[in-house]
């Protein structure tokens, strides 16, 4: 009886927070769904009318949508590849005893605390600028022609900028997993004649598998909504070469003033993100059970 009373009291105390969270999520989502069925343009206030699924049909049949979807997948995949491989490499490096190890770890993790807008501005003006940027200076140093990265390789440039931001996160998670590895296992493998590659493939990577899965899950959820880096550097261009779904929805709403079409795009983006999250959660669940 006392246990039931305790559970009831706990639910009662949690209820306000749960209701506030539901309102925080459901009200904006409900409004977005409502607007997605309207022909609603900000330049024509008071002229809203019901449009059915027209906004969804237009958004899903727009060639820009398929370009944005492809760019989104390439962006997520490229950043994950760089951060997971780079994170494993940095974790292995930082796990070695070295002078000033604490300072080195702080410096490696520091980029994760820089705001995306500031990070994108630094890369755009100080590193990738074809006239005064660091990459241009290095190219001239070797007698090469500087590259205008944001004009010639816009999506690759965005991938590099975002990967630089998320690499410290992957490194931190993977380093924590690596430090939980029992040293006796590595010593036993060395006594059996295992080399560095064998230890990496058969001991270290299997031990880090769960941490790698967590990194992929968390990063994917956030990478599907990359926006600031694109807005600051390329504005989705040239053409649609660096436009992802998030930026396409923004352009539809605040550049073309089409709230109905943008709302439909937002719902499509939410559905796609939930599909990806569903499979990733199943993947991480199986990984944790094994």
Task: Describe this entry's structure for a reader.
The protein is 76% helix and 1% strand. With 290 residues, the chain is mainly α. The protein has one domain (55-289): MetI-like fold (Orthogonal Bundle). Strands 1-2 form a two-stranded antiparallel sheet. The longest helix has 35 residues, at 2-36. The two termini are 38 Å apart.
Care to give the gist of this entry?
The protein contains 13 helices and two strands, in the order αββαααααααααααα.
> Order of SSEs, N→C?
HEEHHHHHHHHHHHH
The CATH topology assignment is: MetI-like fold
Mean pLDDT: 85
Count of individual helical segments: 13
Helix content: over 70%
- Given as residue ranges, the uncertain stretches (5+ residues, pLDDT < 50) are none
> What's the domain count?
1
N-to-C CA distance: 38 Å
What Rg is obtained from the alpha carbons, in whole angstroms?
24 Å
CATH superfamily: MetI-like
Topology:
Layout: H1 2-36, E1 38-39, E2 49-50, H2 54-61, H3 63-94, H4 101-109, H5 116-127, H6 134-141, H7 149-152, H8 154-179, H9 183-191, H10 196-223, H11 228-233, H12 245-255, H13 259-289
Antiparallel strand pairs: 1-2
